[in-house]
Specification:
Elements: H1 13-23, H2 38-53, H3 65-70, H4 105-118, H5 123-150, E1 153-154, E2 160-161, H6 165-176, H7 182-186, H8 191-209, H9 222-238, H10 244-257, H11 262-270, H12 281-284, H13 286-308, H14 328-347, H15 372-391, H16 395-409, H17 435-452, H18 456-480, H19 484-494, H20 499-511, H21 515-528, H22 533-545, H23 549-562, H24 567-579, H25 583-596, H26 601-613, H27 617-630, H28 635-647, H29 651-664, H30 669-681, H31 685-698, H32 703-716, H33 719-732, H34 739-757
Antiparallel strand pairs: 1-2
Helix pairs in contact: 2-5, 2-6, 2-18, 5-6, 5-8, 6-17, 8-9, 8-10, 9-13, 10-13, 10-16, 14-15, 15-16, 16-17, 17-18, 19-20, 20-21, 21-22, 22-23, 22-24, 23-24, 24-25, 25-26, 26-27, 26-28, 27-28, 28-29, 28-30, 29-30, 30-31, 31-32, 32-33, 33-34
Main location: endoplasmic reticulum
GO biological process, one term: endoplasmic reticulum unfolded protein response
EC number: 2.4.1.109
Length: about 750
């Protein structure tokens, strides 16, 4: 029997590959399922994978897309390409204490290409690429599953044989239409997982190609083994999980290429059995290939460590509360509960949520908690599968179960909290790759049931029903990812205890101007998590705008007390204190904000307003100048400098500042208006007129623009034009201060001129 040949002298690998087709059982034999040619099978998988997520193509930028794409300076052409290699996924320097250390430069590079080709932040192009990537990955899965389920065999011409066309198609369809993949496909930041998966699969298929041609003395191709390592490195540069493909390649080599019985091998290693020498491992090249994979993986990790730096990412308790628990028992039991929830999402992907942190899953603190049942169920199933994978007499069963468990567990390890703390409780995106293992186990279980079942067609109909339900669930879920409002509201029923869900619903409502509804959700977020400083800050801002200053101050004071380095809350507290005319406290709050965030142009702007209110003009000008140095496009700071210099009679300096501002922001109509006022007072009427007209063209409904242009014409002596623009101004704003009086003066003057002319 071939399955026992590891105990004897190793035969030529080419003979093994050709004879395996005759000795191994065929999974397809017992299942009632349609058989399609390879081309049509791949077309079907591509079509369904595209259909599931097609309605997300014109969705918005949602949730993390704002930080990873819209606010990421690494997408801009002015950012040197070399900077991508020293920045994290969000555009921060890897050396920064605030960096999440998520090193994915190739993914950011594709975002940058999207941005450049589209000519801006247009989400359609980003979404289409994600959908096409998932379709391409799903098509590749047909080949991958044919190897994992049917074995790796080649014909005499070196072409790989698909010995499990039915089951590989079923597994690929299960993967293509799994609803848990929606976050990766419909959420643009999920491209990291898609690109990682693409190169992960290419690495695996490349490793398989190493055994395509067997030349005498060279039973495998070193080129393809090294290519597999390089592709694994590329996968890791898309997302950290990519490195795990090297471990899976090693497992595949042991189980499929060398057909070793893992349990027997472990027993012999423990007993130092000399029969290992006769296994031919060295001659087959297994040890050499494993050495290449290990050394390649170690080199990749070392280079990444050198680039990333030694400091771990800084996460907070709300991101991953179990990892901050003092008790080892509490940490272990909750980690295992998280694993069981991830497994449940694969089995029943109905309750999906964009975020599972902040109280969504309360900690298990006692063995009396009924949720312990989920842990017991998970480990009961896992131990049963592991026992079968190790101890079964059927080598085919051992191989498939071990590969299924390997693909389920190994890619999940970076997200398991076992090696380092991660910044989430559950993230649907991280089970994109582990779902491969689930699809293997599901398909193998289906084949075993089909073998025993009398009504095979009924079983096939049930599986088709599951696929159809998954397609519909994908379509529904991807439609929810089209906008933040739908996405956030969909989470309310799944995670009603999640403070972040309520916070995001509130923020979305506030952005749309619905402050009353936003307050309700912000209050609920603070109730669920009394230390949620961001919710306090946003709620305080709304209350400040509604002139409910006392409560706003209380909330913002509590926020900075909980998180003393929260610069935005310090600045907002300063604004409230300024409104309460507690100027010294406001100044102190502003400077505290600047101390915690040195490059804070908005805070310098507000500090300048405080100094202007106190008639500390020089300090105000310095503060606004600092704001424009840090943010040259800070229009409000430029405008305030021009206006203050104008009001204090420094027309020459005001003109110089205005010209400097317009050089930096040439299309800002408010700057044109301010500079036009200064030029008019300096009797530079022609230039002033040109700027007024340009500002009006940009913003034709601004009453003050027409009113001040009318004043200019009035001074200049162009009375008919002055009358015209006074009338336009009054039509736009009948109660505009001073305009009506000036208009009446002009009318009297015109009447006097008419009398004289008469």
């Amino acid at each position: 029997q071939i399955c026992n040949q590891h105990n004897a002298e190793a035969p030529n690998l080419e003979q093994v590959f050709h004879r395996m087709a005759q000795t191994e059982p065929n999974l397809d034999h017992d299942i009632s399922w349609f058989l399609l040619p390879s081309y049509w099978a791949k077309m079907l998988v591509a079509f369904l994978s595209f259909l599931c997520f097609a309605n997300s193509y014109d969705g918005d930028f949602v949730f993390d897309d704002s930080e990873a794409i819209i606010n990421n300076k690494d997408l801009m052409a002015e950012t040197p390409l070399g900077d991508l290699w020293y920045h994290d996924f969000w555009g921060s320097k890897l050396s920064s204490n605030t960096s999440h250390k998520s090193y994915r430069p190739l993914t950011v590079l594709t975002f940058r290409m999207n941005y450049l080709f589209a000519g801006g932040f247009y989400p359609v192009g980003f979404h289409v690429i994600n959908i096409l990537l998932h379709s391409a990955i799903s098509v590749l899965m047909v080949d991958v599953f044919s190897i994992l389920l049917g074995g790796l065999q080649f014909n005499t011409k070196g072409r790989r044989l698909n010995l499990a066309p039915k089951t590989s198609l079923l597994a690929a369809l299960l993967f293509a239409v799994h609803p848990v993949h929606t976050e990766c496909v419909a959420g643009i930041v999920g491209r990291a997982d898609l690109l990682c998966a693409l190169f992960f699969l290419l690495s695996f298929l490349g490793y398989c190609k190493a055994f395509r041609e067997s030349k005498e003395g060279h039973p495998f191709s070193i080129f393809w083994v090294l290519a597999s390592v390089i592709l694994g490195a590329i996968a890791m540069l898309c997302k950290e999980q990519g490195i795990t493909v090297l471990g899976l390649n090693a497992v595949f080599d042991v189980l499929v290429i060398n057909k070793l019985n893992v349990l027997e091998l472990i027993q012999k290693l423990l007993h130092k059995d000399k029969s290992l020498e006769s296994a031919g491992l060295v001659r087959k090249g297994l040890l050499f290939r494993i050495t290449l994979l290990l050394s390649g993986g170690a080199s990749i990790l070392y280079i990444r460590w050198r680039i990333m730096g030694t400091g771990p990412p800084a996460f907070t308790e709300v991101d991953n509360p179990a990892s901050f628990a003092d008790s080892l028992f509490v940490r272990a039991i909750n980690y295992n509960y998280y694993y069981s929830l991830n497994a449940w999402l694969l089995l029943c992907p109905w309750w999906l949520c964009f975020d599972w942190s902040m109280g969504c899953i309360p900690l298990i603190k006692s063995v009396s908690d009924w949720r312990i049942i989920a842990l017991a169920a998970l480990w009961f199933c896992l131990i049963g599968l592991i026992c079968q994978a190790l101890c079964s007499q059927d080598s085919h069963k051992r191989r498939i179960l071990t590969l299924g468990l390997g693909f389920l567990i190994i890619p999940f390890l970076p997200a398991s909290n076992l090696f380092f703390r991660v910044g989430f409780v559950i993230a649907e995106r991280v089970i994109y790759l582990p779902s491969i293992g689930y699809c293997i186990l599901f398909t193998y279980g289906f084949s075993l049931l089909s073998k025993q079942a009398k009504k095979k067609k009924t079983l096939a109909v049930v599986v088709l029903g599951i696929l159809l339900v998954n397609v519909l669930r994908c379509a529904l879920r991807s439609s929810q990812w089209r906008s933040e409002e739908q996405l956030f509201r969909s989470a309310l029923s799944v995670c009603p205890l999640n403070a972040k869900v309520h916070y995001n619903v509130g923020k979305n409502l506030a952005d749309k101007g619905n402050q009353s509804a936003a307050i309700k959700y912000y209050r609920e977020a603070v109730r669920l998590n009394p230390k949620y400083v961001h919710a306090m800050n946003n709620l305080g801002n709304i209350l400040k705008e509604r002139n409910e200053l006392q409560e706003a101050e209380e909330l913002l004071s509590l926020a900075v007390q909980i998180q003393p380095d929260f610069a935005a809350a310090w600045m907002n507290l300063g604004i409230v204190q300024n409104s309460l005319r507690r100027f010294e406290e406001a100044e102190q709050s502003y400077w505290t904000a600047i101390r915690h965030r040195k490059k804070y142009p908005d805070c310098y702007y507000n500090l300048g307003r405080l100094y202007a209110d106190l008639n500390r003009h020089v300090d105000a000008l310095n503060a606004w100048r600092n704001a424009t140095v840090l943010k040259p496009e800070h229009s409000l700071a430029w405008n305030n400098m021009i206006i203050l210099l104008d009001n204090t009679g420094n027309l020459a300096q005001a003109e110089a500042v205005g010209r400097e501002a317009l050089e930096l922001i040439p299309n800002d109509h408010s700057l044109m208006f301010s500079l036009a006022n200064v030029l008019g007072k300096s009797q530079k009427y022609k230039e002033s007129e040109a700027l007024f007209l340009k500002a009006i063209k940009a913003n034709p409904n601004a009453a003050s623009y027409h009113g001040n242009l009318a004043v200019l014409y009035h001074r200049w002596g162009n009375l008919d034009l002055a009358k015209k623009h006074y009338e336009v101004s009054l039509k736009l704003d009948p109660v505009a201060p001073g305009t009506k009086e000036n208009y009446n003066l002009l009318r009297r003057k015109l009447e006097q001129l008419q009398k004289k002319g008469g």
